[in-house]
Every structure is written in structure tokens, then in C-alpha cells.
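Input C-alpha cells:
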């Protein structure tokens, strides 16, 4: 069982999805859960099936005190780099909370202070704390939905299946068809930066 919030103050968990992708946005979520809530199956989104994540998402949204989801798109990623874009997305997700948190738990080891709210970075926190796990599920599912939607216009890249991650199928499509407006130009889309045409 993951750790639950045992304090009386409002504690938000935050996480991102899509940091290692070649295309599309980085997506972050922030979630404040009630104290001592126990949502069955809640865990790091990477340890769950797609079906489990989509079952859990409405439960998280229903039982959370507040949640926020935010996207930072490829143009901004290229401009400020993926680390800064990931942190910016988490700040935007926190901004969408209807209630200001009194403490923030972050998955990972890098963060910038948000409105002077105390925070703690936790390595693999999405497998340790329910509010971070909940954030990881929202970030993952909302981003997956977005990638499937834009993938309808670019079926050759198989984004419905790979969600923009650097699979062999995705890289082969980039090599054959070039890159789209959704690809991150600052990323190494192909080994040794083989010349790529951007659509």
C-alpha cells in the first residue's frame, strides 16, 4: 500500500508524463487527496495497464479535493529545454488547483519553488505516495488522449500506440516521412542526427 497523507494540512502531489518523448507536449498533474483515502489499485502509472489507468482516472477526479492538469507544448520545450518545461508544466498544474496547497510532493529530484510553498522531491515518489501516483495517472492519461487525437492526422507515426515515445516504429516513420510540427526539434529524432525534413 502506498503512503497516504497523515497530516492535517493540504498536501499536493505532482508528476509529469512525456518527458522522454520525441513528439507532443510534456503533461503534468497536481492532486490533493483527502487524508487517509485509499483508492484500490492506485500506483505508479507505469506499473498499471492502460485499462487500469482509465478506470482510476475518474475515481481520482471524483475523490480528490482538487486536481489540475497542464500541457507545455513542443515549441516551448524546444525554447526552454525539457527539464524547465517539465517544471513549468508542474507549476501550471499547481496553478489550476482550486485550493492552494500547504505542502508539495514532487516525483523526481528537480523542482523550482512554487509560490514559497514548502516542497520535497522524492525519487520514484509515484510508487510511494498516493497523491503523486494519482498525479502520474492523470498526467499519463490526459497526455495519451492528446497524442491519440493528434495522431489521427498522422497515422504513419503510430502515436495511438507509441504516444510519441522513441520506438523503432516511430523512428522509422520519421526517417521515411520526415518530422511533423508536433516533433521536438531540439531532440535527437534519429541517431547521429540524420537529415530530417520538417513538415
Amino acid at each position: 500500500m502506498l503512503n497516504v497523507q497523515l497530516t492535517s494540512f493540504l498536501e499536493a502531489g505532482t508528476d509529469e508524463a512525456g518527458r522522454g518523448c520525441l513528439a507532443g507536449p510534456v503533461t503534468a498533474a497536481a492532486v490533493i487527496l483527502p487524508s487517509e483515502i485509499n483508492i484500490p489499485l492506485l500506483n505508479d502509472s507505469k506499473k498499471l495497464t492502460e485499462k487500469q489507468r482509465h478506470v482510476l482516472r475518474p475515481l481520482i477526479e471524483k475523490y480528490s479535493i482538487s486536481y489540475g492538469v497542464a500541457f507545455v507544448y513542443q515549441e516551448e520545450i524546444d525554447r526552454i529545454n525539457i527539464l524547465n518545461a517539465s517544471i513549468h508544466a508542474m507549476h501550471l498544474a499547481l496553478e489550476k488547483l482550486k485550493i492552494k496547497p500547504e505542502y508539495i510532493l514532487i516525483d523526481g529530484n528537480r523542482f523550482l519553488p512554487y509560490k514559497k510553498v514548502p516542497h520535497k522531491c522524492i525519487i520514484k515518489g509515484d510508487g510511494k505516495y498516493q497523491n503523486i501516483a494519482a498525479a502520474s495517472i492523470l498526467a499519463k492519461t490526459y497526455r495519451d488522449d492528446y497524442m491519440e487525437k493528434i495522431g489521427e492526422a498522422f497515422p504513419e507515426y503510430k502515436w495511438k500506440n507509441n504516444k510519441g515515445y522513441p520506438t523503432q516504429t516511430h523512428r522509422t516513420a520519421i526517417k521515411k516521412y520526415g518530422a511533423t510540427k508536433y516533433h521536438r526539434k531540439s531532440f535527437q529524432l534519429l541517431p547521429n542526427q540524420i537529415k530530417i525534413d520538417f513538415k
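Strands lie at 11-17, 26-32, 66-72, 103-107, 119-122. The chain has two domains: 11-145, 151-193.
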